[in-house]
Design goal:
The chain is α+β, with helices and mostly antiparallel strands and 149 residues long. The chain has a single domain (22-143), classed as Sandwich (Jelly Rolls). It is built from three helices and seven strands, in the order αββαββββαβ. It has helices at 2-17, 44-49, 126-129, and strands at 22-29, 32-41, 61-66, 84-89, 95-102, 118-123, 137-140. Helix 2 (44-49) links the parallel strand 2 and strand 3 (61-66). The chain is globular.
């Protein structure tokens, strides 16, 4: 009985952690669509911690922050161990500003010079690899424009 309870608790833990706050995202570039699996950051602790202490992240993964309605929102790399590309996105899903290869552990404030609602963090180098530019479009459930096909 004890072993069954342990198995049940492990399964419950796996189910509660896996996929609950992950989603699919697409970046539409002039070269086509690039898809990523992203963690959704919406709750205060998720927004505050982001990718801190993550030692590595698969190439096709990232995190998207819903900062709509937060005046003066900014990003930083405190306690972040991997370099990141940051895409700042407006309410229409357009990339309005890009910050490439943010340096791990830096406490410099990264603030977009233009208004934005979302920030997409990807592994450093993804912007260059996929030729992502200002004006490219993001498709994601936060924008109510993601087609799952």
């Amino acid at each position: 009985m004890k072993n069954i309870l342990k198995i049940f608790l492990v399964c419950l833990l796996i189910i509660s952690c896996k996929g609950k706050d992950e989603s699919n995202l697409a970046v539409v570039t002039e070269n086509g669509e690039v898809r990523f699996v992203v963690q959704n950051a919406q709750e205060p602790d998720e927004l505050m911690n982001g990718l801190m202490l993550v030692e590595n992240m698969p190439e096709n993964e990232g995190m998207i922050f819903d900062l709509s309605g937060i005046q003066g929102a900014a990003m930083w790399m405190k306690d972040t161990l991997i370099p990141l590309d940051m895409l700042f996105i407006d309410e229409n899903g357009s990339v309005v500003w890009i910050y490439e290869n943010a340096q791990p552990m830096s406490e410099d404030i990264i603030m977009s010079p233009v208004p934005f609602d979302l920030v997409l963090e990807l592994n450093g180098g993804q912007v260059q690899k996929h030729n992502i530019k200002i004006g490219d479009k993001i498709k994601h459930e936060f924008l109510n424009n993601f087609d799952k096909e």
